[in-house]
Amino acid sequence: MEKITISIDAMGGDNGPSVTVPAAFRLLARYPYIKLILVGNQVILNAKIAAMQNTKFQDRIVVQHASEEVLMDELPSKSLRNKKDSSMRVAINLVKDGTAQACVSAGNTGALMATARFVLKTLPGIDRPAITTPFPTVVLNKNTHVLDLGANVDSDANYLCQFAVMGSVLASVIDNINRPKVALLNIGSEENKGNEQIKKAAHILAENKNINYVGFVEGDDIFKGTVDVIVCDGFIGNIMLKSIEGVLKLVAFYAKRNMLRNIITKLMALLALPMLKRLHRDIDPGKYNGATLIGLQGVVIKSHGSANVAAFYHALVKAVVEAEKQVPQRIRDELTKVLQDSKLT
């Protein structure tokens, strides 16, 4: 199998090398054909690599020095303008020059999107990249791809239609779905619901024979598994995402509090432990960590800033899959065919 190289912004995120380096070694253990470039402070990274006490992968992991770091609260414009030797920028540059086939970062989301868009540029026919990730559903082994999750606060009908095109291709490539079902997220499923841009996007998509557009869906449809792609603007998508994260934390809090209420509930929790472990495996947010910055001329994966080793590992796996399946190239190949039948301007 052809070797794939992944560049890692090893200094990014809340935990930096204490997470990125162990996750990198875990990936190398699973994929014998993967090579990794850890980008960041070489003194710190070399020390972390040495602390792993594993020389088995020395020929497949290298350190690329970068003298700067992008802070989590830093303005994207400032990092783009003033930190050209940041670990984030250098990692993306490696994708640009073809040294790496994908980049993964847990760093500042705004800075990552701004830098990736500036360095890699968008695909022909795409005005704005979007952030997308799959959500689990009640249908076994089926996910729903949702976009945009925060890259674009304001999205007109044309942008929404472009998101639909990219999401459809992504679901087709990643999940091997023939003609994925695409829907628009709205406040109701009726045709007269929603604002003007939603209605206009629905009209455009309905007339495009290359997109399997099925209409409007509501928020609770995300987890039903009835559609493959759900499209919304980044303002709605990001609020929805953070709300879901909050609900999961709330449920976990109440479950733990009730299980520890008294000796009887503790015994019941002990008996239910195998089931609880399986439940955790099924809906563990870390398992779904890693959002795709879709629409760029290269694979860029955004990990959650607070990701632990296991979660960051899953983001790396996503980068491997998208690099293997050449997602940007597949989207580019489909765009001309799809967009020529649309009324996008």
What can you see in these coordinates?
This protein has two domains: 1-126 and 295-332, 3-Layer(aba) Sandwich (Isopropylmalate Dehydrogenase), CATH 3.40.718.10; 128-289, Isopropylmalate Dehydrogenase (3-Layer(aba) Sandwich), CATH 3.40.718. Helix content is 46%, strand content 16%. It is built from twelve helices and eleven strands. It has helices at residues 17-30, 42-51, 76-82, 87-96, 109-120, 157-175, 196-206, 234-259, 263-271, 273-283, 309-324, 327-339; strands spanning 4-9, 34-40, 61-65, 102-105, 130-136, 143-147, 181-185, 212-217, 229-231, 291-294, 299-302. Strands 3-2-1-4-11-10-5-6-9-7-8 form an eleven-stranded mixed beta sheet, sandwiched between helices. Helix 1 (17-30) links the parallel strand 1 and strand 2. Helix 1 (17-30) packs across helix 2 (42-51), helix 4 runs parallel beside helix 5 and helix 6 (157-175) packs across helix 7 (196-206). The chain is globular.
* CATH architectural type of the largest domain: 3-Layer(aba) Sandwich
Give the total of domains. Answer: 2
**Overall spatial form:** globular
Structural class: alpha/beta
Low-confidence parts: none
Terminal CA distance reads 41 Å
The CATH first-level class of the largest domain comes to Alpha Beta
If strands are numbered along the chain, what order do they take across the biggest sheet? 3-2-1-4-11-10-5-6-9-7-8
Q: From N to C, what is the helix and strand string?
A: EHEHEHHEHEEHEHEEHHHEEHH
Number of helices: 12
Radius of gyration: 21 Å
Q: Into which percentage range does the β-strand content fall?
A: 15-25%
Largest sheet: 11 strands, mixed
* Mean residue pLDDT: 89
CATH topology of the largest domain: Isopropylmalate Dehydrogenase
The percentage helix is: 40-55%
Oligomer: single chain
How many E strands? 11
CATH superfamily of the largest domain: Isopropylmalate Dehydrogenase
